[in-house]
Amino acid sequence: MFRAAAVCLIQILLFAVLCAAHVQTTSQSQQPRRPHGVPEASLPCSAEEQSWWSELKKVAEDVTYPHRPGEKEKKKFLDVLHQGIEKGYKPPVADSHFVLLFKTEPMYTEEARARGIHGTITVQFELLADGNVGKTEILQGLSGGLNEAAEETVRKTIFLPAIKDRQFVTQSTRMIMTFQLY
């Protein structure tokens, strides 16, 4: 009887350990791979750089989800970013990929809707070191004005540029957009 109870207790403990490990693995895999918003300063910097970075973080909050930023908020973010670049400030963070702050959904055109066009568009584009979108290229497209709608969507993207050796750098990326008729 004692042996059966001990075996049962061991099985319960083993099950509890496996459940705890699964919960920990699941919660780690559900964490975002990239930070949301401008990261905290993590490297030594001057008082002026710290002040600029804090202001950049503040104005970035106005363009980050769940907000729906307008041109005024986007311009303010880019102005603060450019002020730091012009003054030669170095981002006080380690090397990182770009941080997407805001992107819109592409608009379905009336022509595409009338013609029943649906599918996927893949756009390759540059995220420039100055915070603007550079060259765009449609790698896989659709007709009916959807390629143009996809490019317009990409141009509205707001992001913190990639950082390498404490400098903003240009980075190329792809965006896949799906157009479905419902």
Provide a short characterization of the protein structure.
With 182 residues, this protein is of the alpha+beta class.
What secondary-structure arrangement, pairings included, does this model have?
Layout: H1 2-29, H2 47-61, H3 71-86, E1 99-102, H4 110-115, E2 119-127, E3 133-140, H5 146-155, E4 158-160, E5 162-164, E6 167-169, E7 171-179
Antiparallel strand pairs: 1-4, 2-3, 2-7, 5-6
Helix pairs in contact: 2-3
Task: Characterise the protein shown here.
The termini are far apart. The chain has a single domain, classed as TolA/TonB C-terminal domain (2-Layer Sandwich), CATH 3.30.2420. Strands 3-2-7 form a three-stranded antiparallel beta sheet, covered by helices on one side. The protein has a two-stranded antiparallel ribbon with strand order 1-4. Strands 5-6 form a two-stranded antiparallel ribbon. It is of the alpha+beta class. 20% of the residues are buried. Helix 2 packs antiparallel against helix 3 (71-86). The protein has five helices and seven strands, in the order αααβαββαββββ. Strand 5 and strand 6 form a beta hairpin.
Q: Figure out the total of helices.
A: 5
Specify the CATH architecture: 2-Layer Sandwich
Mean of pLDDT? 84
Number of domains: 1
Structure characteristics:
TolA/TonB C-terminal domain, 7 strands, 182 residues, three-stranded antiparallel beta sheet, two-stranded antiparallel ribbon
